[in-house]
Design a protein that fits this description.
The protein has 352 residues and is of the alpha/beta class. 35% of the residues lie in helices and 19% in strands. Bound molecules: alpha-L-rhamnopyranose.
Length: 352
């Protein structure tokens, strides 16, 4: 199911578009640099070897982005799809996988980086060996890859998370905490910094961030960290968990505890993992984008690079199959869209 782009804050519009299929690709570039190095009228080469390297395998979020988004895209342009990666999202765990992909002559490596620096050396070697490197979900430093496919702006994600917890906690406010993924995750760290900026706004003056803890995108550790937050901060009113693994684990903990419905929880979750907790009253609303669209767009971005249609410069344009035309923004960034809000009224319409 494709989620049409819409702002999480525009709830009236949300309800109306929740079921609308079809995507409207957005222009993200300035258009001032026409991207002289690319060939916009070129076509995607057949037979490209495209491999996805997520933060970790066996995470439903990445199963959806890669197997339900990346794979169909690669099949559309007649390439060879694969997914590989570590079972734990630790900073250097992806290095040996990158080296192997490089040795195998992989044309496109699509990576959600566990650390913005730790994978840079091996990615730079892979690029020197001829691979095109696309980051998706979680970026590296820009010089280590050719393009970054961002699921939504970091500002938009931070704003949605704060609005959701503020609405759930209510006007009295109180103490809140963040349960994140790994301490090195580029994406979560960017969102957390911007959540802190957002918290300084007058409308959130009654919310007080008392702790940020890390569940490392492991279910059991995330569960324990949620439990630990409640024992350490008995007045806690809400938790934001901007990770699909963390928010599902925290929901399971709260749902089976006396805090259910009293301590509010929001975050970034998949509808399938969160459905039961929305229905049992543990969670009022949470957000995400469509991970399959993210993987689909990342595959087409890599293919456009490997086919010389784009080179990674701001202003270059390419077509990403059913998602339409995209324009590269500053630092080779391609933007998928806006975060989307899931709640009791729409969660049954989604299956991922
Ligand atoms: C987890 C990962 C991923 C993040 C989502 C929201 O699956 O940490 O990087 O984007 O949550």
């Amino acid at each position: 199911m494709t989620i049409r782009r819409t702002r999480v804050v525009a709830t009236a519009v949300l309800a109306a578009v929740a079921l609308t299929l079809g995507a409207c690709a957005e222009d993200t570039g300035t258009g001032t640099d026409a991207g002289s190095g690319g060939n916009p009228s070129g076509t995607i080469k057949e037979g490209l070897k495209v491999t996805f390297l997520p933060k970790q395998v066996n995470n439903p979020y990445f199963d959806t982005s890669d197997n339900q988004g990346g794979k169909p895209a690669v099949e559309e342009f007649k390439g060879q799809y694969a997914q590989t990666g570590p079972s734990e999202a630790s900073p250097s765990a992806q290095v040996s996988y990158i080296n192997t992909l490089s040795q195998q002559g992989t044309d496109v490596i699509i990576i959600a980086a566990n650390d913005q620096d730790a994978v840079c050396g091996s990615l730079t070697e892979a690029k020197a060996a001829g691979a095109k490197v696309v980051t998706y979900d979680s970026d590296t430093k820009p010089e280590c890859r050719d393009a970054f496919v961002n699921q939504a702006t970091s500002e938009g994600i931070a704003q949605s998370q704060l609005k959701l917890i503020s609405d759930a906690v209510g006007p009295e406010g109180g103490e809140i905490a963040i349960l994140s993924a790994t301490a090195n995750a580029t994406n979560q760290n960017a969102w957390i910094e911007l959540m802190k900026t957002e918290l300084a706004k007058p409308e959130y003056s009654k919310l007080k961030l008392v702790a940020t803890v890390y569940g490392d995108d492991q279910d059991e550790k995330s569960f324990q960290e949620a439990q630990g937050l409640l024992s350490k901060y008995p007045n806690l009113k809400g938790i934001i968990s901007p990770t699909t693994v963390g928010v599902a684990a925290a929901a399971r903990y709260l749902s089976g505890s006396s805090y259910k419905g009293k301590v509010q929880l929001t975050g970034l979750g998949t509808p399938n993992q969160m459905r039961e907790y929305v229905k049992d009253g543990t969670v009022k609303a949470f957000a995400l984008w469509n991970p399959a669209d993210l993987g689909y767009l990342a595959a087409y971005t890599g293919a456009a690079l490997a086919s010389g249609i784009i080179t990674g410069k701001e202003g270059e344009k390419f077509t990403a199959g059913k998602l339409g035309e995209f324009t590269l923004g500053a630092n080779g960034e391609v933007l998928l869209g806006d975060p989307f809000e899931f709640n009791a009224s729409n969660i049954d319409q989604f299956n991922f």
